[in-house]
Design the sequence.
């Protein structure tokens, strides 16, 4: 869920609970942007997160 658009797709289809697909695309992206842009903990070996190239554009760095 660290990728904004992956999280937005989940939110759009599943939330609010029992009322999936009741949010607009923009509302889902707004919610996903909020929590995907919160500070994340720094973990060891972060340089190995994307061994096959650069991170996708919607990943928070």
Sequence:
């Amino acid at each position: 869920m660290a990728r904004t658009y992956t999280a937005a797709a989940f939110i759009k289809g599943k939330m609010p609970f029992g009322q999936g697909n009741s949010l607009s695309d923009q509302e889902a992206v707004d919610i996903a942007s909020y929590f995907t842009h919160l500070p994340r903990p720094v973990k060891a070996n972060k340089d190995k997160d994307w061994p096959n190239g650069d991170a996708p554009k919607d990943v928070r760095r």
